[in-house]
Amino acid sequence: MLYEFMTFNMRCNTPVDGKQAWPYRRQAVFDFIQEKKPLIIGTQEVTQDMKDDIEQALTHYQTIGVARTANDESNLILYDKNELICIESGTFWLSKTPQIPDSIDFDSACVRICTWATLSFKHQRNVMFRVFNTHLDHISEQAKVNGIRIIFEKIKSMNQILLLPTILMGDFNSTLNSTTIDWIKNKQNNQALPTLSAYDLLNKNERIATYHAYKGITTGDPIDYIYYSKQCEVEKAKIYKGTYQGRYLSDHYPFSLWIHMTDI
Fold first, then answer.
1. How far is residue 20's CA from residue 55's CA, in Å, rounded to a whole number?
2. What would the pLDDT profile of 55-96 be if each residue is shown by its tens digit?
């Protein structure tokens, strides 16, 4: 069957956004998710109050993840608990000491994390996969490159124990010609790593910016990405540009990839 995997920077709840702030957007966000019904949603910038709203409104999704520091943002993974079972999950920090909470290195402007999960289908327990969801630093190129390196090291170590199809998604704060994206491209000969880009599945006229600052911008490069390993049989990708119910869901567009999971 074909399942949708979505990365979605929901934009933190801040009064600076005025009429675009979370309390004005959240019902449209929930209605959008209820309509599209992604199997997996990798979120970014979710604060505790937003998490509470999500868990109250989207009851068929289970959330995975912790805040990067106390009372801060998280990169929650939402999965459809009617379809999936979480086998194991965790969060690590994009620092020299990934296992130490709140750790920060590489001249990063913020503490940065990656949340991951190993999941299987309820109706087909042998179909398993892993999802990694991150939000790279918005300033330090050194932090971005080292953050991706740490994530790939984690994926590699887990694959050495049990090789599984892997999806890596998130807000990379990096354009197509950046050092960070080049680093990923240089790993493309490794079939076990998520180095194939969902962005490359888009038609030329669909290859647009994913961050638009509530202005509906469509020109430019993405900064939100979904990468997948070669074990995944993918069909299509889509950036949900424009408005929904007359408003922007966030200052980023949701971005989705469809995968034939039961064919893995």
1. 21
2. 999 999 999 999 999 999 999 999 999 999 999 999 999 999
Q: 70: which residues sit within 8 A by CB, 6+ positions away?
A: 102
CB 158 within 8 Å of CB 123: no
pTM reported for the whole predicted model: 0.97
Asked if residue 37 lies in contact with residue 4, where contact means CB atoms within 8 angstroms, the answer is yes
Nearest to 74 by CA among 56, 60, 59, 54: 54
DSSP assignment of 31-93: HHHHHH--SEEEEESB-HHHHHHHHHH-TTEEEE--BSSTTS-B--EEEETTTEEEEEEEEEE
Contact status, residue 64 vs residue 79, Cβ threshold 8 Å: yes
- pLDDT single digits (tens) 123-172: 999 999 999 999 999 999 999 999 999 999 999 999 999 999 999 999 99
CB 22 within 8 A of CB 32: no
Q: CATH assignment of 2-263, given 3.60.10.10, 3.40.50.300, 3.40.190.10, 3.30.70.100?
A: 3.60.10.10
Cβ atoms of 226 and 10 within 8 Å: the answer is: no
HSE of 139, CA atoms in CB hemisphere, 13 A: 7
